[in-house]
């Protein structure tokens, strides 16, 4: 049975993905501060920003199951919505620590086991926020830009070992976090969890390995279109963070 490790597994999108994996026949271990997880999965308490706790948790999963086939970096934070110069220093930095250090530590601990097992997949819960600026959520947006670089670096270095990494943007699912955000106060249309699950399972099953190092987005992407692009191939830089030149005479073009 394939083994998945999911962070931020106790609620929100993490809980949705844990339940989807269980229904799909995976053996699932969920990490969270509380250690709570859906029935049928194994829960472990873990602070994903603590290197010692992460290493111990990963070692325990490998000891129990012998392998990790799928890592899902879902745990994340968002800060108070305000301009950078009004931000609380500790709150701002904690968003960066959770959203970047956490996935870094998990990926660093898990990928060597994937390589030893012949390959695996890392799905990072990212956001379109990482591709643009925000006047009031600079930490969150910066953290998601940084996460895309972790995804890309993992994909490039992992390719020869059969390790693939993806950015999955879940759209705007109605969760405790999104409901607390001022920008979504008047929102009436939300991304259905089922749309996230559909793309997520396609990534987990290897249907979209051509998108390794790239972003897909629930609520916007059509799975059949993604499958077609995966078969036909993607141009360099497609669905990746890149500096856009002003034109062909831009000295940084290419």
Automatic annotation (TrEMBL):
Gene Ontology MF term list: oxidoreductase activity, acting on the CH-OH group of donors, NAD or NADP as acceptor
InterPro entries, alphabetized: NAD(P)-bd_dom_sf, SDR_fam
Keywords for the protein's UniProt record, in alphabetical order: Oxidoreductase
Pfam families in the record: adh_short (PF00106)
Family designation: Belongs to the short-chain dehydrogenases/reductases (SDR) family.
PANTHER family, per database record: CLAVALDEHYDE DEHYDROGENASE, SHORT-CHAIN DEHYDROGENASES/REDUCTASES FAMILY MEMBER
Protein name stated in the entry: 3-oxoacyl-[acyl-carrier protein] reductase
